[in-house]
Amino acid sequence: MEPSSLPVPRGLAFVGPGIWLKGNLHCHTTESDGAVSPSEAAAGYAALGHDFLAITDHDVITDPATVDGHGLVLIPSVELTAGGGRLGTQFHLLGIGMAPGTPLPGKDSPGAVSSAWLRAHGAATFVAHPHWSGLTTDDLLGLEIDGLEAVNAGSTLDSLKGDAFAAWDDGLLRGRAWTAIGTDDTHWHSIERGRAWTMVHAPARTPEAIVAALRAGRFYASTGPEIHDTWAAVSDDGATLRVHVSTSPVASIYVSGPGAHSAMAYHPDATRLSAVPVDAPPPVIQGHDFEIDLRRDGKGPFAGEGTGRTHVRVSCMDWYQRRAWTNPIFF
Length: 331
Ligand SMILES: [Zn+2]
Ligand SMILES: [Zn+2]
Hints:
Elements: E1 19-24, H1 38-46, E2 52-55, E3 73-82, E4 91-96, H2 111-120, E5 124-127, H3 130-133, H4 137-141, E6 147-152, H5 153-159, H6 165-173, E7 179-183, E8 197-202, H7 207-215, E9 219-222, E10 227-234, E11 240-250, E12 252-256, E13 262-266, E14 285-293, E15 311-317, E16 323-326, E17 329-330
Parallel strand pairs: 1-2, 2-3, 5-6, 6-7
Antiparallel strand pairs: 1-8, 3-4, 4-5, 8-9, 9-16, 10-11, 11-14, 12-13, 12-15, 15-16, 15-17
The structure holds zinc ion (2 copies).
């Protein structure tokens, strides 16, 4: 049950009307270094039951009007190369929702300039695979972005450098209101397709509505589980943070705050597996109601370091360690 006085913090995807749409926001085709045509790429995602696809070829916007979308919502997009990483590395910036034909900044344009340019042109803007790129948190802090890829399946398969949860949390700790998508970065010569996706809560099945929802943080992302609902509220006396989560069957559910602050839940039988027959399915939960004591350490647990603001983000993980994660909920 949802408290009637619940505020709607920025980034909370699960409140209000809308439809849930599943899609991939990072995909290459023969327009750059992918192995299949744009229409074949759309067919590949339609076959997975996805609702939308962003074709993000390198430094070129593929015009959806030239593509057989096989029923998908195609969002004109780009993966823009930019320069200026402090260690000499490049940025790859996803611009989701760009007018086809828009002249793009050059590959040597600094990341700070190109990211601001993408957002000024209406694109939801995410840093692709920061770990794979060799970017530092300082590099990311200099950008104007909506967020980053917390999971890039292609980079995970290619080098085990597709995960950016630590960089994301570092940015949140330093006061950035970043969100985090999951993508395949499909090139079609590996097995990336369908490994990571983003669930958008949008008012309509259109590119414009999906991009607006991405910019507003109205989404979660996953490599397996589903998050059906979550909300968070501080008690009137300020002493307790209540967080409600409901999910598909999972091994564990997490509430993560800044720094070392976190809470987790799992099925009671998961701690006494000796009591469970070896051939029994592992015990799962499908939700949890957390009550977190905000006064525990006397210093404002779950408070950001020096930002005067606090947040939590919710995640869950199945027994294969596939996970789903929400955007931060700020207080
Ligand atoms: Zn890239
Ligand atoms: Zn890519």
